[in-house]
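User: I'm preparing a small set of examples for a lab meeting where we compare how different chains pack in three dimensions. I only have the primary sequence for this one, and I'd like the structure in token form so I can line it up with the others. Please keep the answer compact; I'll paste it straight into my notes.
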Amino acid sequence: MAANAIVQSDEQGGGAAGGGRGSGTRQGFLRRAFKVRETGVFLALLILFVFFTISNKYFFGVTNLLNVVRQVSLLGIIAMGMTMVITTAEIDLSVGAVYGLASTIVGMMMTKGGLPIWLSIGLGLVVTLGIGLFNGVLVTYGRIPALIVTLGMMNVARGAALVLSQAQVIGINYRTIKDPAVNDFLYIGQGKLFDIIPMLAIFLFAVTLASYLIFNRTIFGFHMRAVGGNPVAARASGLNSHRVKIVAFAILGLLCGVAGILNLSFLGNVQGTVGRGLELDVIAATIIGGTSMSGGSGTIIGTIIGVLIMGVLRNGIMLMGISPFWQEILIGVVVVGAVAVDVWTSRKRV
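Assistant: Understood. Below is the structure token output for the 350-residue chain.
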């Protein structure tokens, strides 16, 4: 009976669809495209590209575009981890300070401590990974709001970086480091692959690819979305929500360490104040990219587009000769708009 009804329905629709099947297919494709979360963000990026290309003849040059990618590389690396944390319905305000602490610790170990470069890097990553784990444990098992935990950790990490460096600039060069691998270390931040592509861009691509595979192609990525979207249902299905959140915080801490070490390599020096305010840019890029502040919904591709939007905005404004203070205003407006859109679309879905 039901099968006959389906057949009859198909036969009745066949004539109508026969003549306009091409247009129907195109309309269906467009509807599916605009349902994809990244589509709106990508269109915003495309509009910015067109606007700044028309406004300034230097914007669309290969050198300038590669420079934009290099400038946002470290921001993008940290934003990958922030996407995972926010998807679990948590947040981390300590990322800028942990990023600065990683640079300071590694710089101090290589110069004042006299340790080999790669050992210093390993110890720096262990410290930032430990900070991420500590944040996650306090948030989950300690039942302290993430806002409070990470705000406190931000002050702890920033203070530790200033104490270690004594608020002085730590230089990285062959005079301050005896390890002969110093040039190799500086190359990973300052070098270019094939003398064209910045090494920082290569690291951004590698981290983005790994994050995408974890977030979209593993069961752990599904667990993060489940824990953030409906924690009650997640617990009822047997998911260990505490473990999922702790791992998300740990990944973010590790990526802060990676970005901080790359920054040290790129600049060739570090001071305790590095990374101040970076957490706001990271959260902004993540939200602009479509990750929901309420948790349960995030997208790695959207985040990297959000990172590029911020980079294009800043670069385009600079090339147009507009005061850099307008960057903060524009990014603030974009963030509020992105959150408003997320709230409105969430209500419609409900």
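A couple of notes for your slides: The radius of gyration is 23 Å. Strands lie at 170-171, 192-193, 197-198, 269-270.

User: Perfect, thanks.
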